[in-house]
Design brief:
By secondary structure, the protein is α/β, with parallel strands linked by helices. 38% of the residues lie in helices and 20% in strands.
């Protein structure tokens, strides 16, 4: 392949005309003939730069409301011809095809049109045909043609022309070609998704193409020998950890982002609640509290399991204030996630240069639609997000004793937290505070025992007269297959139980609850989390 290729003719067709003035002036400075279309040609002319209309090049006028203007052999022949192939050169001469050395194109705003709520006909008209065709032709022939699809690359292009007497290098052309094919792939993915989901209402399309763009490489993956990066969707997406503003702190790691996402998902369940603090370690909550103020919520969440909180992730459902920020700095914390932070809180954190502060703006809606994905060997598992919730009216009391108002509130609080704990999950809660959390065990009895141990250790560490599991509610993310897990909770002092129900031994478990004078609520909904 030839390294330096002089740019003598450029074809420009833009929907987004930002930076066009500087681009056209720079090309004119190097004596490049500019061929353009419609509005782009008018814009170039306004700035006093000579431009040749595309219809003059092809010998055909734009037709069919602009649908046909660049789909012509004199355009694609000029793009695809291999300049050092004698047969190609002869064909160009025979048919009067002039070479095109540079294409600058961006595509019709399909996504913007969809997001504007436009009608179907308008959306269809904003599916670009000629643009992607030129992009692909130019990118394929990058040995001889440069293709620019991003206004952010205009400066690099003009820099090369200035440095190389009006020529582009092969290195730049290869880079731009790769970027061009990524653009057309992601553009087509958005169109295919619109057709499948919005236009035809398909649940699971036969082919599901997703476009994602690199936000940043990460230091490493879960372990130092694994490389990692963060990608964000091309197209509409809910605001979340990937879109959060990092105010300060060192570079985020794979584990930081994974844990911060878990913390945000859980604290978002309380976005309409009183001030709430969530502390997460290894993607599992180790302390959650709702209180009258954020500092009170922090103190209570930390008290649940101060050992696990060391090196953890903190998330709040309210603007982070100075007292809470100061308290958080008293223990080693990796990341703090909040909707916003006041200037005093930011100043306090600024003294901890490694502490990452992520501001998310509005918390995501826990009821939002969407899917989660997991890569398995040879495939991809896709499922709906777990946005299931239960209200108190949907709960079914299956025991002789009905719950008190406080037990009912504690059950719902514990149930909300358990939804975000890895299975098998057991959560004790009392007065809007987690008392003990048992996560990720192979049987539910051990989760109940571990949660009780954590609660006992918390009581000893804080000098409380008894464990907070005494008089608590306990939530189980799935049914109790045997009565042993429920009895372990009763031994810890729980008085109320909330669980999905549905076991073939439900009657046995209900009888055990009645024997222990527990009240037990069935949700009819499971929250496995793996």
């Amino acid at each position: 392949m030839t390294d330096l290729v002089p740019v003598r003719r450029a074809l420009i067709s833009l929907s987004d005309k930002s930076g066009l003035d500087e681009l056209a002036a720079g090309l004119a400075r190097h004596g490049v003939e500019i061929v353009s279309t419609g509005g782009t040609a008018a814009k170039v002319t306004e700035n006093g730069v000579p431009v040749r209309d595309i219809s003059d090049l092809t010998g055909f006028p734009e037709m069919m409301d602009g649908r046909v203007k660049t789909l012509h052999p004199k355009v694609h022949g000029g793009l695809l011809a291999v300049r050092d192939n004698p047969q190609h050169v002869a064909s160009m001469a025979e048919h009067g095809i002039a070479p095109i050395d540079l294409v600058v194109v961006n595509l019709y705003p399909f996504l913007k049109t969809v997001m504007s709520g436009a009608d179907r006909d308008t959306i269809i008209e904003n599916i670009d045909i000629g643009g992607p065709s030129m992009v692909r032709s130019a990118a394929k022939n990058h040995a001889h043609v440069a293709i620019v699809t991003d206004p952010g690359d205009y400066a690099a292009l003009l820099g090369e022309l200035d440095a190389n007497n009006g020529s582009t290098t092969l290195a730049l052309r290869k880079k731009l070609a790769a970027k061009a094919y990524a653009l057309t792939a992601s553009y087509d993915s958005l169109i295919s998704q619109w057709f499948a989901f919005a236009d035809q209402g398909q649940r699971w399309p036969e082919t599901w193409v997703l476009g994602n763009e690199l936000k940043m490489p990460l230091r490493y993956g879960e372990n130092p020998h694994q490389q990692a990066a963060l990608y964000v969707p091309v197209g509409p997406s809910s605001r979340g950890i990937a879109q959060a503003e990092q105010v300060q702190g060192k570079e985020l790691s794979y584990n930081n982002l994974n844990d911060a996402n878990a913390a945000l998902e859980l604290v978002s369940e309380f976005r309409e609640s009183d001030p709430t603090v969530v502390i997460v370690k290894h993607a599992n909550p180790c302390g959650v509290a709702t209180r009258g103020s954020l500092i009170e919520a922090w103190n209570e969440a930390l008290a649940c399991d101060s050992v696990s909180a060391f090196g953890g992730i903190v998330a709040t459902n309210r603007l982070l204030d100075a007292p809470t920020a100061e308290a958080i700095t008293h223990i080693f914390t990796e990341v703090v996630v909040a909707p916003d932070a006041d200037e005093q809180a930011k100043a306090i954190f600024a003294k901890k240069k490694n502490l990452r502060l992520l501001l998310t703006g509005d918390l995501p809606d826990p009821r939002r639609p969407g899917q989660t994905m997991a890569v398995i060997t040879g495939g991809l598992l896709v499922q709906d997000r777990d946005k299931g919730m239960v209200t108190r009216d949907e709960l079914k009391c299956v025991t002789k004793r009905q719950p008190s108002e406080q037990e009912l509130r504690d059950c719902l609080f514990a149930w909300t937290v358990a939804k975000h704990v890895n299975s098998n999950a057991i959560v004790y809660a009392k007065n809007g505070v987690t008392a003990g959390i048992g996560a990720g065990q192979m049987n539910r009895r051990d989760s109940a025992r571990i949660a009780a141990i954590r609660a006992k250790e918390a009581a000893e560490a804080n000098g409380w007269p008894e464990s907070r599991t005494v008089g608590s509610a306990v939530a189980s993310d799935a049914f109790f297959p045997f009565a042993d897990g429920l009895l372990a909770a009763a031994e810890a002092g729980a008085t109320a139980v909330i669980q999905p129900g549905g076991s073939i031994r439900d009657e046995e478990v209900i009888a055990a609850a009645d024997e222990a004078d527990l009240t037990m609520l069935f949700t009819g909904m499971r929250h496995f989390r793996h």
